[in-house]
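We emphasize that the prediction below concerns an isolated chain of 85 residues; any contacts that depend on oligomerization or on bound cofactors are therefore not represented. The input was used exactly as deposited, without trimming of termini.
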Amino acid sequence: MCGIIGYYGTKEIKPILLNGLKRLEYRGYDSAGISIMESSEIYTQKNAGNVSELAKNLKLSEIQGKIGMGHTRWATHGEPTDLNA
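Result of the prediction step, given as a token string:
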């Protein structure tokens, strides 16, 4: 199982994605990640652990994109690792 959220709009995207992932965490708590598009670049961060771990380790602080998505993962196949996040 997993949880997926997307956003396209004018508000700051990181809090929206993280809040949405927190609400979807029951769908998957083994790993989480977000991707944000700024200009024509896509920046991604993912890690094993829950959404709080992702928020604590988030390195996308300078990214100001307005399009993005987030994902939570329940490890039904494969180990809950950063690579599999």
